[in-house]
Model the fold of this input.
Amino acid sequence: MPTRPDTAGARPDGPAAATATPDAGPGSGHPTEGSGHPTEGSGHTNEFGHTNEFGQPVGRPVPGWVPRPPVEPVTLTGRTCRLEPAARHTEGLHRALDLQSHPSTWAYYPQGPLSDEPAMAAWVASLDASPTSVPLAVLDADGTARGIASYLRIDPANGSVEVGGIVLSDALQRTTAATEAMYLMMRHAFDDLGYRRYEWKCDSTNAPSRRAAGRLGFSYEGTFRNAVVYRGRNRDTDWYSITGEEWPALRAELGRWLDAGNFDADGRQRTRLDTASALGHEPVRAPQDR
Done:
């Protein structure tokens, strides 16, 4: 079973042992984006930021930027969980999400609960068929499928990717493994592939998703009103992100919290995850959470 922060034990190996194993594609790279500070010949700065040769305000330089590798199917291994391509685990995903979880698990998704394993397989296949989607199954320490999360809106040219389509079973919700799964996906995008922006989006009415985004260090960026119609109702979509500049501090804090030494023999956390202190400020919250 997944390791719950307040109920279950933790294995002795820490998050530093987490690994990423490509299942396909060109392999990993490292960030080539510069520090973001102005360089000679890159334009002038004033109180408004950078300007071009015509004196117009422009964005900061990104020296040496090149497109990043595409996100490909991958195995990500941590202390309390492992992520693998979802197509390998459709039977387990159907069991965990459709048969062993409350139907409300699917409340904020256009599909689900799914009727049988072929329906789950068809949904996962539709995600795999998209060039901007990589669905991964979240497995507990015993290798049992407990949830699904996908890389979405994959944009190698600009180094941007979204984590989304997150459906966690009742057994996985609010566990150490759930947090570690999100950490492993972030770390792969930033550290292995060199992406510079990592997105999270949710229905504006989905309070648990908004809270999860804030806890992990995502900052609210705005709301796309009347963005989607699903299940016969409107969806306003809240947008969140973590940038490459914020990632080192968040990586350190997530790694500290996930370390086995932060949990007692019963799996209870000794200290809380504190991404606000790591960033030096509270992540920007959606208006309804302020």
